[in-house]
Amino acid sequence: MSKKPSKSNNSRSDSPALQLGRAVEWPDAPEKAKLDRVPNPQGGTEYLVRFTVPEFTSLCPVTGQPDFAHLMIDYAPGQWLLESKSLKLYIASFRNHGAFHEDCTVMIGKRIAAEIKPKFLRIGGYWYPRGGIPIDVFWQTGRVPKGLWLPEQGVAPYRGRG
């Protein structure tokens, strides 16, 4: 008796099984990383999901020096949830990726939105200073759904020595 190949848990006939629960190789570039989605068991409920990434790293595309950020990702799920292990692998894929702060922040937001098609998504990239200038980058998909509680992101603005 032969076994049928198991279907993916994320209901995509064109993609392999989820990365969750098995060993996977770390992607070495954002375009090689796979973001997994899982069905939202609370699809009829308006709620917010928050991912906090306090140690995001990428490389300056000009100098090759490391850049550091605190990312806050908030989304109101639709049919899909973003699977957290795949997010961790995706975020780690930026460690050797050279891109400006603005590009990294917006790229991450757009990629997540494309994969899970949330009702709403916003990302705040709070970048640590390089050359004495912190850069904060914000992007969102549209208006906040009516009645959705959207808390402040809670990341203190950079104050310097002043």
From TrEMBL:
<feature type="region of interest" description="Disordered">
    <location>
        <begin position="1"/>
        <end position="39"/>
    </location>
</feature>
<dbReference type="Pfam" id="PF14489">
    <property type="entry name" value="QueF"/>
</dbReference>
<dbReference type="GO" id="GO:0033739">
    <property type="term" value="F:preQ1 synthase activity"/>
</dbReference>
<dbReference type="InterPro" id="IPR016856">
    <property type="entry name" value="QueF_type1"/>
</dbReference>
<feature type="binding site">
    <location>
        <begin position="82"/>
        <end position="84"/>
    </location>
    <ligand>
        <name>substrate</name>
    </ligand>
</feature>
<feature type="compositionally biased region" description="Low complexity">
    <location>
        <begin position="7"/>
        <end position="16"/>
    </location>
</feature>
<dbReference type="InterPro" id="IPR029500">
    <property type="entry name" value="QueF"/>
</dbReference>
<comment type="pathway">
    <text>tRNA modification; tRNA-queuosine biosynthesis.</text>
</comment>
<dbReference type="InterPro" id="IPR050084">
    <property type="entry name" value="NADPH_dep_7-cyano-7-deazaG_red"/>
</dbReference>
<comment type="function">
    <text>Catalyzes the NADPH-dependent reduction of 7-cyano-7-deazaguanine (preQ0) to 7-aminomethyl-7-deazaguanine (preQ1).</text>
</comment>
<keyword id="KW-0521">NADP</keyword>
<keyword id="KW-0560">Oxidoreductase</keyword>
<keyword id="KW-0963">Cytoplasm</keyword>
<comment type="similarity">
    <text>Belongs to the GTP cyclohydrolase I family. QueF type 1 subfamily.</text>
</comment>
<dbReference type="GO" id="GO:0008616">
    <property type="term" value="P:tRNA queuosine(34) biosynthetic process"/>
</dbReference>
<protein>
    <recommendedName>
        <fullName>NADPH-dependent 7-cyano-7-deazaguanine reductase</fullName>
        <ecNumber>1.7.1.13</ecNumber>
    </recommendedName>
</protein>
<dbReference type="GO" id="GO:0005737">
    <property type="term" value="C:cytoplasm"/>
</dbReference>
<feature type="active site" description="Thioimide intermediate">
    <location>
        <position position="60"/>
    </location>
</feature>
<feature type="active site" description="Proton donor">
    <location>
        <position position="67"/>
    </location>
</feature>
<dbReference type="InterPro" id="IPR043133">
    <property type="entry name" value="GTP-CH-I_C/QueF"/>
</dbReference>
<keyword id="KW-0671">Queuosine biosynthesis</keyword>
<feature type="binding site">
    <location>
        <begin position="101"/>
        <end position="102"/>
    </location>
    <ligand>
        <name>substrate</name>
    </ligand>
</feature>
